[in-house]
Design a protein that fits this description.
By secondary structure, the protein is of the alpha+beta class. It has helices spanning 12-26, 45-54, 96-107, 123-131; strands at 2-6, 57-62, 65-76, 79-87, 113-119, 135-139, 150-156. The protein is globular.
């Protein structure tokens, strides 16, 4: 069974561990010349603890075991951002992410607009978000510090 629950400080180390492993594995998909770091704070227990305390931060559970996470940011009235999502490498391609995102949508019935960004090289992410109803709205310029551009998505309810 898949479910999302609000993360607590007790979950911080496990969520950081999974996130670190997942985003480091993404490096194999990056084209030459890209920064090999992950998103801000992905490997920091303190960073994750801070966000758990101040924003909707969910753990993704599979049969009661933490297998990933979702961080949501409120952007304004009825507007939210799927700030970050990850699923443990050993649990990918099992439909866990799809079920978790559907539950995230259900947790915010007032949301009229969702947004998110993903790297241009992350084709698998793009396919996933489009399958979940997000529509590509633009590609950003290449960030010289990262070596890649980003793709921005929206989903209207």
């Amino acid at each position: 069974m898949i479910e999302i629950k609000r993360a607590t400080s007790k979950d911080t180390a496990r969520l950081t561990e999974i996130q670190t492993r997942t985003f480091k594995d993404d490096n194999k998909l990056k084209p030459p010349g890209c920064n090999m770091g992950g998103p801000p704070g992905y490997d920091s227990v303190d960073w994750n603890a801070g966000w758990i305390a101040k924003t909707p931060y969910y753990k993704i559970l599979f049969d009661g075991q933490i297998v990933g996470g979702i961080i949501v940011f409120k952007l304004g009235e009825k507007r939210y951002e799927l700030g970050r999502m990850w699923v443990d490498l050993d649990f990918q391609n099992l439909g866990i992410g799809q079920q978790a995102v559907r539950q995230m949508f259900e947790a915010f019935p007032e949301a009229q607009k969702w947004s998110l960004g993903t790297p241009s090289w992350a084709i698998r992410n793009q396919h996933f978000y489009e399958k979940m109803g997000f529509v590509k709205i633009k590609e950003t310029a290449v960030d010289p510090n990262l070596g890649w551009s980003g793709i921005e998505y929206e989903k209207l309810s």
